[in-house]
Structures are given as C-alpha cells and as structure tokens.
Amino acid sequence: MKGLFITFEGIEGCGKSTQAELLADYFRQQGREVLLTREPGGPKISESIRNILLNRDNREMLPETELLLYMASRSQHTGEWIIPALNRGEVVISDRYYDSSLAYQGAARQITREIIDPIVTYATFGLIPWRTILIDLPAARGLARIKAEEADRLESESLEFHEKVRQAYLQLAESETKRYIIIDGNRSIEEIHKDLIYKINEALKVVANET
Fold first, then answer.
1. 4-210: what fold?
2. How far apart are CA 178 and CA 169, in angstroms?
3. From CA 12, how far away is CA 95, in angstroms rounded?
4. Quick check: 13 and 166 in contact, CB under 8 A?
5. Model-level pTM greater than 0.90?
6. What DSSP line would sit under 41-67, residue for residue?
7. Residue 210: its pLDDT value, please?
8. Is the pLDDT of residue 118 over 80?
9. pLDDT at 149 over 90
10. How do the domains of the chain map onto residue ranges?
11. Is the pLDDT of residue 207 over 90?
C-alpha cells in the first residue's frame, strides 16, 4: 500500500479527536490527501452500528455482543474506506482502531486475547497501523471533561473501568514500542500538537532512511 495509516487511541476525554483533526490539517498543508475517520463509524453501515453501540439505552449489551458489533463496524470501515484510501496513496488517520478492542473489550470486559486476536485479524484484513498515537491521561481527568448528561454508553462506565482501559493502553504501548507513540495529554492542545508533529516527523525520517 502506498499510503500512511495512523491511528489515535486513549481513554475517553483525552483529547485524541482534537489531535487527530490537527494532524490531518498538518498533512493537508503539506499537500497530502487525507482521510480523517473514526471508530466505530465511517461508512454508512459502520455509523449505523455505532448508534447501537453507544446508545445508553443498550446497557444490557453483553461483552460478546459488543465485541462482535465493533468488529463488524471495523470490517466495513477497513474494507470500504481505509484500504482503498491507502491504495490511492492517501494519509489515513483514524480516531480509534483495533487497539480499542484490546483495551475496552479485552482488559475492561475481560475477553481474552485468544478470542480477540483472530477476530481482529479477520475484521481488519490483516491491516496494521504504521503508527498509533496514544494520548495518555489519567482516567479521572478525562472523564471530568465529559458532561454527564452527554455521556454515551461507554463514557458512562465507572472510573475503575476506564482506569483498566488506560493501563491496557500503556501495556500495549510498552509491548509495541516501534508502532506506538506515547503523548502526554496533561498539557495544552498546542503543546500536545507540537510534540506530536515532532515525533511523527522523526518517524518519517526513519522510514525515509530505510528506503
């Protein structure tokens, strides 16, 4: 594939969506074609599944159902949008991707990697992001940024749940140091963006030297 696939991960309220938008703007200013998208979501089918997953009226949803719905949304998203854009040489930036399932349905919902991993591979057609940006922030601080009346089904989970998610992300980053870039989310939007651009450009230099 000719394009560049970058994903953003982190707990609720960490600021990753804002940083994804800023990074997309940065690449566009460099003259690159950019697809900025999100999970769950993207194509029409995936957005319909998103509405089911995040609806607070669906609190009875089983962890297994949740996992499979995320994977169904991801499969459509990857096959219909992401892979074609990468084949066109575009920069694809996704606000969440499969690491979210490892953190949320894996660590927080306690579904084992033995179950999740093969489904992830199938749903993503084996696609792995070039770099994954983890905006790290304590769960309590992230949740404090979300208004209770606006919180979706996952945002409404307990602090303990979201701390498990955060720790899972940190463990993933530690196990995949080449793919992951950890960004301290305890700073201003401008400071985070500047740090992120520096680290992305350093990673691009490595790629250039390897070719």
1. Rossmann fold (3.40.50)
2. 14
3. 12
4. no
5. yes
6. -SSHHHHHHHHHHH-GGGTT--HHHHH
7. 67
8. yes
9. no
10. 4-210
11. no
